[in-house]
Write a structure and sequence with these properties.
Largest sheet of chain A: 6 strands, mixed
Structural class of chain B: mainly alpha
Radius of gyration of chain A: 25 Å
Number of helices of chain A: 15
Order of helices and strands of chain B: HEEHHHHHHHHHHHHEEHHHHHHHHHHHH
Radius of gyration of chain B: 25 Å
CATH class of the largest domain in chain B: Mainly Alpha
Order of helices and strands of chain A: HHHEHEHEHEEEEHHHHEHEEHHHEH
Number of strands of chain B: 4
Number of strands of chain A: 11
Strand content of chain B: under 5%
Number of domains of chain B: 2
Largest sheet of chain B: 2 strands, antiparallel
CATH topology of the largest domain in chain A: D-Maltodextrin-Binding Protein, domain 2
Oligomer: heterodimer
Structural class of chain A: alpha/beta
Shape of chain A: globular
CATH superfamily of the largest domain in chain A: Periplasmic binding protein-like II
CATH architecture of the largest domain in chain A: 3-Layer(aba) Sandwich
Distance between the termini of chain A: 87 Å
């Protein structure tokens, strides 16, 4: 039947076919601009769905991911679904459950927002896609691994291209400038401030990420020789090293918010408490958080930021692809887009999210370089210069020890 | 037969889930090369710092809150009977039943924390506090806030069950008799009505008790954290990607199972003792008469407590709702400084897919539950009827944290995770027992003579059901559908586990926002959460009124 149809309408059919090919030409040429492998990825990914599992508690971040979704939809025809996690480990235990059930492909997670301890555990458990994909992303050429070694070493663990850098986090304090005139910017000053201002300080209860980070920040300040913290716990005299931290806490806790009998659940809870003036200092891993909380009306505009003068804890957060992802090619494209100057610029803007870029601004095309330099500033946010003093994360093995010891000492009840 | 197939649908996955928890607790976790049975992990779990205190917190908060909820419920029933408050009370408790625990918890927290609404109302003009006082309340060390929260949430549920149960017992007749014999109305209650109600409410109360032992979301906000109740600790152990933590979580879940079993046994035993005492008093003809001041001293605090708990629940919801329209609201302002719709503009579109999901899943799950409940009731088991009846309630009587993880492995292994069908089925597991609970008592009370009449017309069993029983039972059927829908729309953990974590409903959104975001965002989530079941409540109410309208001629006015 098709034959007769073809014979009768030969000219028409040929015309249609040629028109079709002609229309495909620009698409083909666009693909040809990239290196072959990446073009193949794009072809493979049209119409695919990517399940992006990422913490979903912040409206600003959720909106940013929605923006990314609309971008990858128009640019690559990928449907990006943001799976909002309350805790990243939910997704990890899901991948683990999939591994237990023997599902080696068609996994439920395509892309996962991760770093530090979670990454190291996924890596050890063999839950990650192992082909060094992250180094081959076209956007990775703007990452300066010399200047920012954290982009290939996650809490001291080499990433080996198993995850692609997404943004930077740095530990900052927020304070109520109505109550505090000069912020206590060292461990000793903070202790004195807590003692004279009883009931106005606390930290999120470990194993909350921010709470544990505060303990690490303190430890980095209190320890005699910081270098020991960059080794695995088993190689050190851990008990002695942690001693000053417990001493500091023992001294400070009686003067804490609710006498350290209870702690805030997480940094969001803490921000609420700062907004309610129950406490006067809060903390965050996002230098823009206080500025955006002021914008949302959670905090009063009197809140300002500070960091310890010796420097503050900083790390890079990544996106990774599990070993059994359903659409790994499309996930790579999304990871590449997340790392592109365009997406990084949108993310660094305080009006969107305010998360610092992992790219080296100096290496960018002049257009983007200029846009990065003219990003809006906010009085509650520290400047790039003020944030320069970054202390890298200790070896991840310290986290577990600190959390367990803390649990024993302060959360076991009397 | 029909009954057994329903049991298999309900019970098998739960059983698989239990295996998935019990085996790791004994050290069997083959994926990590652990395939030796040991008691080591169970022992290690007990040695976790603060373990016993966690257990104590779980037990004490659960027993106390259930005790309060139950007795306040009984007294409310007595007084609503006396004062004719039924319909008013039903309207008050509807929103409290409809929303999930976390929203009530959020509201209560905002109400009673030191920077909360209550303190704002009295500051600074009375207290002199310009900044919130540093008081250790909400959460407090003993879990009082959690007890208040649980009571406020469970009292309405028990009241609803109580109202249904009361309809079964012909109270007015008994009340006349009681009065004729010269007993006071409350004494009469305890001699005659309470024993009848207590037996009929037992399953519901045990469900409340087991739920309180294993509550996670509410406890995260209202319970102490140094240490936290056991269920919360299990949840955080499961969350840790560390493999030993997973094993400890599994074995702690086994302990939690035992604990809730012990609590149930304790509750039933106490009930038995109380029954014996009352039977003794009844046989002796004890008048239980307390008049004047002592009477007031007993009754006033109880009534005050009931009002307090209901007000806390309602005000909590109200404050959660208000936050949806707030831009700035600081201590010590009694009302927000700046109102606005900012939070709605930002996030409203994102709520549409979860809204639709909630609607679809809730609808299908409750319809299915309704159909199987009717089949269940129409074809009673010939033998072991009590046992099979008990099996239906298993999903509600086991701690959710216990079997859901094991069930998740099972679901993934079947490769059905994340689909509508799986989520609907997981919801069905929980909706079915509630439907049975609300429909069962009334269904069994159906007057057999109607059926005999139908049979005399030569109607088949199905025709009798379809043409006689169903239309006559329209009101209870709709009511239990509505309750099924409310249960489904408030389910959190089952949705997360069956839905791949990717299946969004209003509740998953609300919990994420309530735990992690601003009060403004959580306020919106709370409102949306309330709207859906409430709309269904209202539509059903209108339909019921419409149906009863035709019979208004027969109604005897009070």
């Amino acid at each position: 039947m098709f034959e007769t149809f073809y014979k009768i309408n030969k000219a028409f059919v040929l015309r249609i076919v040629f028109c079709g090919l002609f229309c495909l030409l620009p698409i083909y040429s666009a693909l040809a601009l990239d290196d072959d492998e990446f073009g193949q990825l794009k072809l493979n990914s049209i119409g695919q769905e990517v399940a992006f599992h990422a913490w979903g508690g912040s409206p600003a971040i959720n909106d940013y991911i929605q923006w990314v979704a609309s971008q990858v939809d128009t640019q690559y025809g990928i449907t990006l679904n943001h799976v909002k996690l309350t805790n990243t480990s939910h997704a990890i235990s899901r991948i683990l459950a999939e591994k237990i059930a023997g599902r080696a492909e068609n996994g439920s997670v395509d892309l996962l927002w991760v770093n530090g301890e979670n990454f190291s555990r996924m890596k050890d458990a063999g839950l990650l896609r192992e082909d060094g994909w992250a180094y081959n992303l076209p956007s990775f050429r703007y990452v300066n691994t010399q200047k920012m070694p954290d982009t290939i070493s996650d809490f001291g663990i080499p990433t080996l291209g198993l995850e692609s850098p997404w943004g930077r986090a740095q530990f900052v304090f927020g304070y109520d400038s109505n109550v505090i005139k000069s912020p206590p910017n060292s461990a000793v000053k903070l202790l004195n401030w807590i003692k004279t201002n009883s009931g106005k300080f606390s930290y999120p209860q470990p194993p909350d990420f921010i709470g544990t980070s505060f303990l690490k920040q303190l430890l980095l300040q209190l320890v005699e020789n910081r270098q020991v913290l960059y080794q695995s716990v088993s190689n050190t005299n851990a008990e002695e090293i942690l001693e000053p931290l417990w001493k500091w806490l023992d001294e400070a806790h009686p003067f804490f918010w609710r006498k350290a009998e209870t702690f805030p659940v997480n940094n969001i809870h803490m921000a609420r408490l700062l907004g309610d003036t129950e406490i006067s200092i809060a903390m965050s891993f996002n230098p823009a958080e206080f500025a955006s909380a002021i914008g949302q009306g959670i905090l009063s505009s009197d809140v300002k930021s500070f960091i310890f003068e010796e420097g503050s804890l900083g790390n890079v957060h990544f996106v990774t692809i599990p070993y059994n992802a359903s659409s790994p090619d499309a996930a790579k494209l999304v990871a590449n887009f997340l790392l592109s100057p365009e997406a990084q610029l949108h993310k660094a803007n305080i009006q969107n999210w305010g998360d610092p870029t992992v790219l080296d601004i100096e290496m960018l095309p002049p257009k983007f370089k200029k846009s990065f330099q003219s990003l809006p500033q906010h009085p509650a946010m520290l400047t790039m210069q003020e944030l320069q003093n970054v202390i890298p994360e200790p070896h991840p093995s310290w986290v577990k020890l600190i959390e367990e010891e803390w649990q024993k000492r302060y959360a076991a009840g009397s | 037969m029909a009954r057994y197939s329903i049991i298999i649908i309900c019970f098998l996955p739960v059983f698989a889930g239990l295996l998935g928890v019990v085996l790791p607790a004994f050290g069997w976790f083959p994926i990590y090369g652990k395939s030796q049975f040991t008691f080591e992990i169970l022992a290690q779990t007990v040695n976790q710092p603060g373990f016993l205190r966690s257990v104590w917190l779980s037990v004490s908060t659960a027993l106390l809150s259930t005790f309060l909820a139950y007795w306040l419920c009984i007294f409310t029933l007595i007084y609503s009977q006396k004062l004719n408050l039924h319909s008013t009370l039903k309207k008050i408790i509807a929103p409290l039943i409809a929303v999930p625990h976390i929203i009530v918890a959020m509201g209560i927290l905002f109400l009673i924390q030191p920077s909360g609404w209550v303190f704002r109302i009295f500051s600074p003009w009375l207290t002199g506090w310009q900044t919130p006082p540093d008081l250790n309340i909400a959460p407090d060390l003993y879990g009082v806030a959690l007890i208040i929260g649980l009571t406020a949430k469970e009292l309405p549920f028990l009241l609803m069950v109580g109202f249904t149960v009361l309809k079964q017992v012909n109270i007015s007749r008994y009340r006349q008799q009681i009065t004729t014999f010269g007993y006071g109305s409350i004494a009469g209650w305890f001699h005659i009505i309470h024993p009848m109600i207590a037996a009929r409410m037992r399953v519901s109360v045990l469900i409340v008790l087991c739920f309180s032992v294993s509550v996670v979301d509410m406890a995260l906000i209202l319970a102490p954290s140094t240490p936290a109740p056991l269920a919360v600790k299990i949840f955080s152990w499961y969350q840790s990607p560390d493999i030993t933590s997973q094993l400890i979580a599994a074995s702690a879940a086994v302990y939690l199972l035992l604990i809730s079993l012990c609590c149930c046994v304790f509750w039933i035993a106490c009930g038995a003792v109380l029954r014996t005492v009352f039977r003794f008093l009844s046989y002796r003809g004890a008048r239980l008469t307390v008049r004047g001041l002592p009477h007031k001293l007993i009754i006033l605090p109880v009534l005050a407590l009931i009002v307090f708990v209901l007000i806390i629940g309602i005000m909590g919801l109200l404050s959660a709702g208000i936050w949806g329209f707030v831009e700035v609201w600081r201590f010590p302002d009694i009302l927000p400084e700046k109102w606005g719709l900012n939070s709605w503009r930002n996030g409203f579109a994102a709520y549409i897919p979860p809204f639709i999901n909630t609607l679809i899943v809730g609808f299908i799950a409750s319809i299915l539950a309704l159909i199987s409940a009717i089949i269940w009731l129409e074809y009673p088991a010939k033998s072991f009827s009590k046992v099979t009846e008990a099996l239906a309630y298993i999903p509600l009587l086991l701690p959710q944290t216990g079997f859901l993880f094991g069930m998740q492995v099972f679901i993934i292994w079947l490769e059905v995770d994340g689909s509508y069908i799986t989520v609907i089925w997981a919801h069905y597991l929980f909706v079915f027992p509630y439907t049975l609970l609300t429909l069962g008592p009334i269904w069994r009370r159906f007057d057999v003579r109607y059926e005999l009449l139908g049979a005399s017309f030569g109607f088949s069993k199905f025709e009798r059901l379809w043409r006689i029983k169903m239309p006559l039972m329209a009101v209870p059927i709709i009511t239990s559908f509505v309750i099924g829908f409310a249960v489904s729309s408030a389910l959190y953990l089952p949705t997360i586990f069956a839905g791949n974590g990717a299946f969004l409903t209003i509740t998953t959104e609300a919990v994420t926002l309530a735990a992690n975001a601003s009060r403004q965002a959580a306020g919106i989530a709370a409102l949306l959460q309330m709207i859906l079941p409430l709309v269904i409540f209202i539509i059903a109410g209108m339909y019921i009124r419409f149906r009863l309208h035709n019979f208004s001629y027969f109604r005897i006015s009070h």
